[in-house]
Specification:
This protein is mainly beta and 111 residues long. Helix content is 0%, strand content 47%. The chain is built from no helices and ten strands. The strands form three sheets. Strands 7-8-9-10 form a four-stranded antiparallel β-sheet, with no helix packed on it.
Length: 111
């Protein structure tokens, strides 16, 4: 685990990679990710290999890198777009809970 003051803020490096700074502006997570999303409800998101994963405030993975698109958490849920990892549901939107479980999948592609 990483010891740092909260909250973490995404920061894009001049090379286009993303990391995180603490509330004092100190770099605490090196910019090694293709993308990063800010934290909401204690959960942020990082992108690697073209796919997104959710992390906690210590940068521990909550999910694998398995989503084409991610949104922030609100009321314990986040909207995601599923990837080929989800076989028949690739491209479908879904909702996950704060421990990474898929709780609802749109029955239609892209909706």
């Amino acid at each position: 685990p990483i010891a740092h003051p909260k909250p973490l803020t995404p920061l894009e490096s001049p090379g286009g990679k993303w990391g995180f700074t603490d509330n004092k502006g100190n770099l605490v997570v090196n910019p090694v990710y293709e993308g990063a999303r800010g934290f909401s409800e204690g959960i942020g998101a990082i992108k690697r290999g073209g796919l997104w994963a959710y992390v906690d405030e210590e940068m521990n993975l909550i999910t694998d890198f398995e989503f084409r698109w991610v949104d922030h958490f609100e009321h314990g849920l986040a909207e995601v777009r599923l990837s080929p990892i989800h076989s028949d549901y690739d491209g479908h939107f879904a909702y996950i809970n704060s421990i990474g479980e898929i709780i609802w999948v749109s029955p239609h592609f892209g909706e």
